[in-house]
């Protein structure tokens, strides 16, 4: 298979240019074609010599993946299906799996919910992605394709790494994507247009907080460690208490924001006792709590808390000094809402 150009830096592209007999400055030109003009073939890089393009195409390809399906919700949300090649372990054969990216329109904003893995290792019991197991990490080109190959590519205003997979479990590739999105030679977005959502992978979370200026969202869901562990096995490895303690060491009083995702289940985490514990856990932080209605999935006995209960929970947090919002559900009718992404070809 040919090596993909998409995902490489100008310095890496310069080395490739020299390798195929092109001048070194062709690396910068290729970066412009890839990240600003979003070409899909080497032949479109018309300011490279024809001979240079021919030699380049013998060894390399752009490597942008095209979606094989798109569904549109009644609320305008669109879910794209991408085929990706993944190997579960180094040295094993690659297989084709399917991942989903969700474009969420909101007035002038168009936010892309991005996937970083095929499946997920974290095993949260209330998440369709986690319940399918882990199939492999996406490559940088796989992730960038979700930005560049959809119909709304030119109009995207924001990105959230909240799709399939745990972004910090594939941090090397996700970091490279974020660098390309925010670099002047890349897409040139402001870091405040990007949010990474994590379950709390502590070693990589520290790196993210140190190396990135993008926003952070943490999947919290229950302030009591022993209860959180019932639904979220990752609690055994990285306690939410330790995750919050780490985050408190960083400054979120400026443009960078931290939020906590809290899916509200009937009787499991929706009581005044939980709200009090959540206030205690987050005390002293400049943050927001996003309350999310649970979307039912097969073979899972819990249901969402009522709208009245969620409103009472929100009010208790607000009175305690924590900003809280009830997030509107988007794309539920096409299984594009929180916790429902699975890739239709992955589910039997």
Largest sheet: 10 strands, mixed
What is the number of domains? 2
How many alpha or pi helices? 11
Give the averaged pLDDT, no decimals: 92
Unreliably modeled segments:
none
Main sheet strand line-up:
3-4-5-6-9-10-11-12-13-14
Shape: elongated
In what range is the share of β-strand residues?
A: 15-25%
Return the structural class.
alpha/beta
* Cα-based radius of gyration, to the nearest Å: 21 Å
Element-level helix/strand string? EHHHEEEEEEHEHEHEHEHHEHEHE
What's the architecture of the largest domain, going by CATH? Answer: Alpha-Beta Barrel
The CATH homologous superfamily of the largest domain is termed: Aldolase class I
Q: Kindly state the percentage of residues in helix.
A: 25-40%
User: What CATH first level of the largest domain would be assigned?
Assistant: Alpha Beta
> What separation lies between the terminal Cα atoms?
30 Å
Describe this structure in words.
With 348 residues, the protein is of the alpha/beta class. It has two domains: 59 residues, DNA polymerase, domain 1 (Orthogonal Bundle); 278 residues, Aldolase class I (TIM Barrel). Helix content is 30%, strand content 21%. Strands 3-4-5-6-9-10-11-12-13-14 form a ten-stranded mixed sheet, with helices on one face. Helix 1 crosses helix 2 and helix 7 runs parallel beside helix 9. The chain is elongated and about 70 Å long. The relative contact order is 0.12.
Summarize it:
The protein is an alpha/beta fold. Helices cover 30% and strands 21% of the residues. It has two domains: 3-61, Orthogonal Bundle (DNA polymerase, domain 1); 69-346, Aldolase class I (TIM Barrel).
């Amino acid at each position: 298979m040919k090596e993909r150009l998409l995902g490489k830096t100008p310095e890496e592209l310069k080395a490739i240019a020299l390798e195929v007999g092109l001048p070194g400055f062709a690396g910068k030109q290729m970066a412009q074609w890839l990240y600003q003009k979003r070409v899909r073939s080497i032949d479109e890089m018309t300011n490279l010599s024809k001979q240079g393009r021919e030699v380049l195409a013998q060894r390399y390809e752009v490597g942008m993946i095209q979606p094989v399906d798109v569904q549109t919700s009644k609320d305008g949300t669109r879910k794209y299906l991408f085929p990706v090649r993944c190997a579960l372990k180094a040295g094993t054969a690659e297989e084709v799996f399917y991942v989903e990216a969700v474009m969420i329109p909101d007035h002038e904003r168009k936010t892309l919910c991005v996937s970083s893995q095929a499946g997920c290792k974290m095993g949260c019991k209330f998440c369709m992605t986690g319940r399918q197991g882990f199939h492999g990490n996406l490559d940088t080109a796989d992730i960038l394709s979700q930005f560049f190959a959809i119909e709304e590519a030119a109009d995207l205003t924001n990105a959230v790494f909240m799709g399939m997979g745990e972004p910090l479990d594939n941090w090397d590739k996700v970091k490279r994507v974020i660098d390309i999105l925010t670099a002047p030679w890349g897409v040139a977005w402001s870091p405040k247009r990007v949010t990474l959502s994590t379950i709390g992978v502590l070693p990589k979370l520290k790196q993210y907080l140190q190396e990135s200026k993008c926003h952070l969202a943490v999947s919290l869901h229950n302030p009591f460690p022993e209860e959180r562990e019932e639904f979220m096995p990752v609690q055994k490895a990285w306690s939410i208490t330790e995750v919050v303690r780490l985050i408190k060491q960083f400054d979120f009083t400026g443009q960078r924001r931290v939020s906590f995702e809290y899916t509200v289940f009937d009787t499991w985490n929706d009581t005044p006792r939980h709200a009090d514990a959540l206030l205690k856990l987050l005390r002293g932080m400049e943050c927001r709590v996003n309350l999310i209605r649970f979307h039912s999935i097969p073979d899972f006995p819990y249901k969402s808390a009522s709208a009245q209960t969620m409103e009472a929970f929100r009010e208790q947090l607000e009175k305690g000094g924590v900003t809280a919002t009830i997030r509107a559900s988007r794309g539920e009718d096409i299984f594009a809402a929180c916790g429902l992404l699975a890739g239709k070809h992955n589910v039997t």
